[in-house]
Amino acid sequence: MILEAGEKISTARAESSTLESSFWALADQYSASASVFWPGRLGSSDGGVGRRHADGDFPVSGLIADAAGNLYSTTVFGGTYGAGVVFKLDPSGKETVLYTFTGAADGGFPGSGLIADAAGNLYSTTGGGGNTSAPNCVFNGCGVVFKLDRSGNETVLYTFTGGADGSGPSAGLVRDAAGNLYGTTT
C-alpha cells in the first residue's frame, strides 16, 4: 500500500488489525508529513505469521525515526530463518532489511521496540534465541539484548539463561545518560 503525504496509516488498520496501537500512533504521526510505503504482508492476511517473507512478518513493536526521516522497527517472524528482522523504511517507501535473526546465538523473535544512540546504533531484545539449551525457556531460547551498528553488524550484549536473570524479554529497553541499558524479563 502506498500512502500519500498527509494520509493517515490508520486507514489501513482493518487490513492489519494485529498490529499494536503504539506502532500505529507513531506511524500516523510520521505519515502526516511524508509518503510512506507500508508492506501489506507484514502481519496481514496475505502473508501470515511465520511464512518467512524475506522482509519480515508480524511487526508488533513501535517505530523510531532518525533525523533523515527513516523509520526503524522489528518483526517477530519472517526473514531468511523465520526468526524476525530489523528493518528500515526510508521516506520514499523503500524497505531495507538491516538484520535477519537466525533464532540461534544471535537471538530471535524480536517483539520489543528499538532504541537508538547518538551514533545511530540500534538496541533491543529478542524473546527467543540466545541460550537455546536452557530447559526453563519456552520460546526456542531465553532471549538476548543486542546492538545493531549502522553497518548492520549485530553484537549480542547479553544472553539470558532462564535462571535468576529471567528469560523472554518482551518489553523495550531504556538507556540512561551513561549508556546503561535497563529492561525486564518474564
Could you tell me the mean pLDDT?
78
Q: How large is the share of residues in beta strands? A: 15-25%
> Largest sheet, described in full?
4 strands, antiparallel
- Oligomeric state of the chains in view: single chain
User: Gap between N and C termini, in Å?
Assistant: 36 Å
Q: Count of helices?
A: 1
Helicity level: under 10%
Q: How many β-strands, per DSSP?
A: 12
Indicate the structural class. Answer: mainly beta
Task: Note down, in words, how this protein is organized.
β3 (64-65) and β4 form a beta hairpin. By secondary structure, this protein is mainly beta. The chain is built from one helix and twelve strands. It folds into two domains: 1-100, no CATH class; 103-186, no CATH class. Residues 1-50 have low confidence and may be disordered. The protein is globular. It has one helix at 21-31; strands spanning 2-3, 36-37, 64-65, 71-75, 85-89, 95-100, 115-116, 122-126, 144-148, 154-159, 174-175, 181-182. The strands form four sheets. Strands 3-4-5-6 form a four-stranded antiparallel sheet, with no helix packed on it. Strands 7-8-9-10 form a four-stranded antiparallel sheet, with no helix packed on it. Strands 1-2 form a two-stranded antiparallel ribbon.
